[in-house]
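Appendix C. Worked example: Putative beta-barrel assembly-enhancing protease
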Amino acid sequence: MFKRTRSLICLCVATAIASPSVSVANNIELPDIGTAAGGTLTIDQEIIYGDAYMRILRNNQPIVNDPVLNEYIDSIGHRLVANANDVKTPFTFFMIRDRNINAFAFFGGYVALHTGLFLHAQTESELASVVAHEIAHVTQRHLARRMEDQARRSPATMAALAASLLIAIAAPEAGIAAITAATAGSMQSQINYTRSNEKEADRFGINTLAKAGFEVKAMPRFFGRLADEYRYASKPPPMLLTHPLPEDRITDSRERARSYPPMRIQPSLDYQLARSRIVARYAGIESDAAMDWLDRAERRANQSGKEIAPAFRYGKALVHLDNKKLEEAEAILDELIKLDPNNNFYLDAFSDLYIEKKQPEKAKVMLERALKATPNNAVLTINYANVLLKLDENEQAIRVLQRYTHDNSDDINGWHLLSEGHIAMGASAEDLAARAEILALKANWNKAIQFYTQAGQLAELGSLQQARYDARIDQLMVQRDRFLSLQ
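Step 2, the predicted output written as structure tokens:
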């Protein structure tokens, strides 16, 4: 583990993540204020801070490394980004396993969604309204603008200001205290400034929603339901601590939604599949409770329209599969795959089923056929590599995973499987290298460098393999020094 210093890194690690977000935004006619923070933090600096904080989160939070869910939230997120204004950074969308309702964005285009959000957002457009709001926080550079505002009132260093802001995103109660201490500003001024940002993000976000083809009324509907549910709660969800929902904000979003032409949006099967997967595997509830939720959801779907009913049967199949009730799971999945043979939710579940049934060869045939239709698809590729390992076809699995980790270097799943493949082949040096990449993704630089050093000692002296390890050590040392300089 790297040595922690009194810096942005240490301050952020010291808190548990929880955070802000719900909304949507709007007006194309707003003045260009995205560059207002240029005197404090450049876009390149934001990307450096964002990368550092993301590594911290991987090491300290239950990030959901689920290829199917990641593919889904990526599709929603990038559909919105493609229709957003003032996009200056790449965007990364990820999920945290947490039943609290929350979402948040931070430097560098990172947007996090708590799994609990899916349990309260009833439609895809409601989820998209939250994501659009968070995208607007990034494109309008609200963190950097708050930092600029604080810098005018405080002698604190950039790193101290960035740290206090990132804590505020991750842990609202601790964050407000940290910001107050760092800037000597009053609590009320911080709240007012936050509300100003929230309304601006709502205005930009609702415009993004409309352009991306989502239902704009989903935003005030979700806001209103959330406000009603927690109006008298002694402990509101983390999102409402930093994203307050006063009545005027809800009213404003409702009025803005009315200014857009009405749209009839068909229910999204993929969204309900994602919800069902979360209920079955990431909601932290017992199997009986998950089955009860899925039963009730299926009955409601059958009463109001059957387009999304298969999603809840899919959730039941996952519960059966995870409880080793393989015949029950297979019966449901057989029915579903006939309805939609190319659906990655179903193909992923079948891959797991065949492995549990000790029939990985069936999964291999199924996935090879699917990959011909959609080559290089991440969900299919990672499942395919896993199946190859189960078949002891390790050399082929390693070739697949080397390409996969090259294209998806931030996906810990690929590195874990690559490590497994090298272990099976007795390639200790390559196993160490794969595990070093996982450590680097979690900001454990010194251990990552140590593993690469050990790998280099195992490689043949003067070989290309040793040269590759040495070059990677040099890269990691540069990244580590940059990481530790954020103080």
